[in-house]
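Researcher: Please predict.
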Amino acid sequence: MITYDQPPAPIVVCFDCTTNEQKTLEFLQKRGIRNQNALAVVLGNIKQESKFDTLVCEGGAKTGYHGCKSGGFGLIQWTSPNRYYGLGSFAAKYGGNVDTIETQLRYMVNEPQWGRYELYLRSEDQSVDFYMKHAYNWLGWGIHGNRTRFAYNYQSRLTIIQPVPEVA
């Protein structure tokens, strides 16, 4: 039987992104989301929600999870009681620090809202508008506003790097 090695998957990088933006980009790609537009939309939505600040409570106070008494909290501004308390329960159950990007990203992709959205994010070669249309069911925002502008900004800043295959 003959087997063929697959070429290494392209990597999407952002050279001028913050540490939390880069961690998010890497995390999403490890999950198999590799389309530049899909990645840009997720980054743009997170930027609109929290500016990638995992300690921020709705309104801008940097309270951390336990100090946030009303409104949304964290990376994607978890607001409803099920989602907000779900983050705390998830961190306690799996031993993560509720205020870190690592725990918040892990929680984000374990929510049912994300699970439905991720199916669209894995659709290759779609437009920013396609991924943005489906982002509503993930986050439930009212208007596109800055989140769409942020997504297009990330799209222009993301670079696709094609790794060189190893020679045997």
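Model: The mean pLDDT is 93.
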